[in-house]
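Checklist before submission:
- one chain only
- standard amino acids only
- sequence pasted in full

Submission:
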Amino acid sequence: MSSPDPQVRAARNQSTSSAAPGARGPVVAVTGAAYGIGALLTARLAASDEVRQVVAIDERRGDCADAHWQVLDVRDPAIAEKLRGADVVVHLALDLDLETDAAARTAYNVRGTQT
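Returned file contents:
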């Protein structure tokens, strides 16, 4: 599925009179935002004029200075409060390290998705 035409996106994301001045686009939360594809996506979204704010969530703070960082484990129930106000959540936090215990890795990946 391709992205909508740029003019369609621009019209959809235009501020209305009830929106705060300077507000634009959605608030996007990215889990696993400190490294790998999560870090790349976080930086790209933060640089976009079509995104109002990026909430970056990871167990450590990453390098993207333009994101609003929340340092926590995705299995922590407190994540629900950190995601309040997000229009979109991109869940990229997962453990792919084959050197770690398989049961612990599976528990992290499954529980992180359920939370």
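Reviewer check: The first strand starts at residue 27 and ends at 31.
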